[in-house]
Design goal:
Oligomer: single chain
Strand content: 35-45%
Number of domains: 1
Largest sheet: 8 strands, antiparallel, barrel
Number of strands: 9
Structural class: mainly beta
Shape: elongated
Helix content: 10-25%
């Protein structure tokens, strides 16, 4: 059960690397991670995106693939620990993890990927997903203002009735 102060955040993620023929990840990818915040780590609750030509269809439960713990360390030196997270895709299951323990600065291609296309090394990065302030919000505010003005004019235009 998450503490009352926990909140949900979204991060954009990418997994890149040299070509698979050069030892890079077989399925580079990108997408979003939804997490529930914790005191030292965040728990990944959902993953979207693609890995190679495969669409991610869901997050696998803890311990399903290579001991995945589905934890994210957004304020640490390595956003994933050595257990990482695992997903199901349209092509099969894929695990992504750090080769370095949390708290150790990763260097080079420090993230492993194992799954449909085999094992590979790459670079994993997260960034906070932008919180959009879409124009539709402004349109909503303008619309409400217009309704308010219209309602005020209606009140003025109605004839007075006296008894």
């Amino acid at each position: 059960m998450a503490p009352a102060s926990a909140s949900t955040l979204t991060f954009d993620w990418t997994l890149t690397g040299p070509a698979a023929s050069l030892g890079g990840v077989a399925e580079p990818g990108s997408g979003t991670l939804s997490v529930t915040t914790g005191s030292t780590s965040d728990t990944i609750t959902a993953v979207t995106g693609t890995l190679g030509s495969f669409t991610i269809t869901g997050l696998l439960p803890n311990g399903t693939l290579f001991g995945n713990d589905n934890l994210l360390y957004p304020n640490g030196t390595a956003p994933l620990d050595t257990n990482g997270f695992a997903v199901s895709t349209t092509g099969g299951n894929i695990a992504i993890w750090s080769d370095f323990a949390e708290g150790t600065p990763p260097t080079g291609n420090a993230y492993g990927e194992d799954g449909v296309g085999g094992y590979g090394q790459g670079t994993f990065a997260i960034t906070p997903a932008p919180v959009p302030l879409p124009s539709s919000v402004w349109m909503l505010l303008l619309g409400l203002g217009g309704l308010g003005l219209g309602a005020g004019r209606l009140r003025i235009a109605q004839p007075e009735t006296r008894i």
